[in-house]
Design a protein that fits this description.
The chain has about 110 residues and is mostly helical. The protein contains 6 helices and 3 strands.
Length: about 110
């Protein structure tokens, strides 16, 4: 019985020490760390963020990245959209309305 209890305690200790993979990957990275992870120059990362091609977070004038978001971005083939579906729907609807409207005809006849 004591042996089983010791085994159980050792298993619990090992689980408490090792974080899960999800927790391990949700790590905040700065620009230099993200550039090193992706094998890109800092200037390339800046261009990618300004074009909205990569997931990032901005606080003040600092850029931050989460490791798990970058890994998902890589797995998806580098596809990332900064616009939500509602915003995209709104823009499409606005374009449709603008294209259907013309100038108001002058109804006054001399």
């Amino acid at each position: 019985m004591k042996e089983k209890l010791d085994q159980l305690l050792s298993r619990l200790d090992s689980m408490a020490v090792q974080p899960s993979k999800a927790e391990d990957n949700h790590v905040l990275l700065n620009l230099n760390e993200a550039a090193a992870m992706l094998g890109k120059a800092n200037s390339t990362i800046y261009c990618m963020t300004s074009d909205g091609r990569i997931p990032y977070h901005k606080t003040g004038n600092k850029l931050y990245f989460f490791k798990d978001e970058l890994l998902k971005w890589i797995e998806s083939g580098g596809l990332f959209s900064t616009t939500s579906s509602n915003e995209t729907d709104f823009k499409e609807h606005l374009k449709m309305m603008q294209s259907g409207k013309g100038r108001k005809r002058n109804t006054l006849v001399d």
